[in-house]
Amino acid sequence: MTTGPRDEIGGVMRFCRSRRGGRRCTRPVDHAGLHRHRTVMWADTGADPLRCTGSGTTGAPAATLPDGWPHGHALCPTCHRFVPLHGGVLAPHDTSDPAETQAGALRRREWFNTFGW
């Protein structure tokens, strides 16, 4: 039985980033059927907008790993992505980045394992 898309190094599982009422879908990326978080289910038409509600809120650069990553980006408390700061506020961003690479996901995992939530 497969649990979802994984990379070749590190076994990172990528989850669907659809949200409803702030709840994130816990199914794998590109799953078929309805989105789900525990007992709550929804279709794409009932999903929250892609734009993260953390956009435009105040932020500060996140702690850095030894090589400097995430390079001055702030951790969004809503979607848990690292986003640029513009004048002390989080830049407009979506709740997920479909272009994020496996290497980027691994770096994010390393950061959370080092600094926690």
Descriptive notes:
The protein has one helix spanning 102-115; strands spanning 19-20, 23-24, 35-37, 40-42, 74-75, 82-83, 85-86, 89-90. The protein has 117 residues and is of the alpha+beta class. Strand 5 and strand 6 (82-83) form a beta hairpin. The strands form 4 sheets. A two-stranded antiparallel ribbon has the order 1-2. The protein is globular and about 40 Å long.
Tell me the series of helices and strands, N- to C-terminal. Answer: EEEEEEEEH
Structural class label: alpha+beta
Q: Give the strand content.
A: 15-25%
Number of helices: 1
| Basic shape | globular
As a whole number of angstroms, the C-alpha radius of gyration is 15 Å
Unreliable sequence segments: 1-9
Straight-line distance between termini:
30 Å
How many beta-strand runs? Answer: 8
Largest sheet: 2 strands, antiparallel
Question: What fraction, in percent, of the residue positions are helical?
Answer: 10-25%
Biggest sheet, strands in spatial order?
Answer: 1-2
| Average pLDDT metric | 86
Give a topology summary.
Blueprint (H helix, E strand, L loop, with lengths): L18 E2 L2 E2 L10 E3 L2 E3 L31 E2 L6 E2 L1 E2 L2 E2 L11 H14 L2
Antiparallel strand pairs: 1-2, 3-4, 5-6, 7-8
